[in-house]
């Protein structure tokens, strides 16, 4: 009974002050999230989670709904909850891009517990950065970065940034941007605008969009060229660069 009372309080707190339309959107998201967590893809993801974390002693697994995390409501409604990448798309996209990762800064927009940031650091990127807006996930990501360095997973420590992906200014130099369907088109456009500005200033930018549900954000206005188009991911370069 006490448990039910606690659940009710938490759920009601998350719905407080929302419009009926926002409540409907949130409910739909929660249902989708629950359904996904029982499917075969979720079972495969759970096995991958366990294998990675068993190997490195990290905590990168699980699913987490944004409504359960301490993030600004208006931004949470534009984003998707946590589910880690398994690294396959990154490996495939890197092979197609044919770049030397040592020349690039890797940025994961919406990095959660940081698994793909750890994988990028191990792959040899000059810097590996994760940007995550949920403080609970960011705290786990920081511990994972420490652990990964301590057990020799990567030669340098990953950089975990707490903040909104749409407001994050990427560092100078060549950038490999990684976006795993972390948010909808509104935030995606904010991220792309900052990358486009860098490209217009002459910086080399490559972006891989995994589980690409909002390709229109990249492809409207022909500001990005498709370099490779696979079932699970699309590789882009901004039209503004000559690289
Ligand atoms: C599908 S998970 C991807 C996790 C990670 N990129 C990976 O591939 O392993 C989406 C993540 O994006 C985060 N997220 C959603 N909207 C965000 C925003 N506006 N700014 C920063 N992080 C965001 C969520 O909290 C969640 O951790």
List the helices and strands and how they pair.
Layout: H1 2-15, H2 20-36, H3 40-56, E1 63-64, H4 73-76, E2 82-83, H5 88-97, E3 105-109, H6 115-123, E4 127-132, H7 135-150, E5 159-162, E6 175-180, H8 185-200, E7 205-210, H9 216-219, E8 224-229, E9 233-238
Parallel strand pairs: 3-4, 3-6, 4-5, 6-7
Antiparallel strand pairs: 1-2, 7-9, 8-9
Bound molecules: S-adenosylmethionine.
Protein name: DOT1 domain-containing protein
InterPro entries: SAM-dependent_MTases_sf
Organism: Sphingomonas dokdonensis
For the record, the CATH architecture of the domain at 88-238 stands as 3-Layer(aba) Sandwich
β content, as a range? 15-25%
Total strands: the figure is 9
* Strand order in the sheet with the most strands: 5-4-3-6-7-9-8
N-end to C-end Cα span:
62 Å
Gyration radius (Cα, Å) is 18 Å
Secondary-structure element string:
HHHEHEHEHEHEEHEHEE
CATH superfamily of the domain at 88-238: Vaccinia Virus protein VP39
CATH domain topology of the domain at 88-238: Rossmann fold
């Amino acid at each position: 009974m006490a448990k039910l009372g606690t659940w009710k309080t938490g759920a009601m707190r998350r719905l407080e002050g929302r419009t009926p339309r926002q409540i409907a959107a949130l409910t739909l998201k929660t249902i989708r999230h629950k359904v996904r967590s029982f499917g075969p893809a979720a079972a495969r993801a759970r096995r991958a989670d366990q294998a990675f974390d068993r190997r490195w002693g990290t905590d990168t697994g699980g699913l987490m709904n944004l409504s359960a995390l301490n993030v600004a409501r208006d931004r949470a409604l534009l984003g998707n909850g946590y589910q880690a990448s398994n690294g396959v798309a990154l490996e495939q996209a890197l092979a197609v891009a044919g770049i030397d990762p040592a020349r690039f800064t890797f940025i994961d927009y919406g990095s959660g517990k940081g698994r793909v940031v750890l994988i990028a650091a191990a792959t040899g990127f000059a810097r590996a950065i994760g940007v995550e807006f949920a403080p609970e996930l960011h705290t786990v990501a920081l511990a994972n970065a420490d652990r990964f360095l301590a057990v020799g997973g990567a030669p340098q420590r990953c950089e975990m940034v707490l903040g909104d992906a749409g407001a994050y200014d990427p560092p100078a130099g060549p950038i490999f941007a990684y976006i795993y369907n972390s948010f909808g088109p509104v935030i995606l456009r904010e991220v792309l605008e900052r990358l486009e500005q860098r490209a217009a200033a002459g910086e080399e930018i490559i972006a891989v969009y995994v589980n690409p549900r909002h390709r229109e954000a990249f492809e409207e206005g022909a500001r990005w060229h498709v370099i490779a188009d696979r079932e699970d991911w699309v590789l882009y370069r901004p039209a503004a660069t000559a690289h």
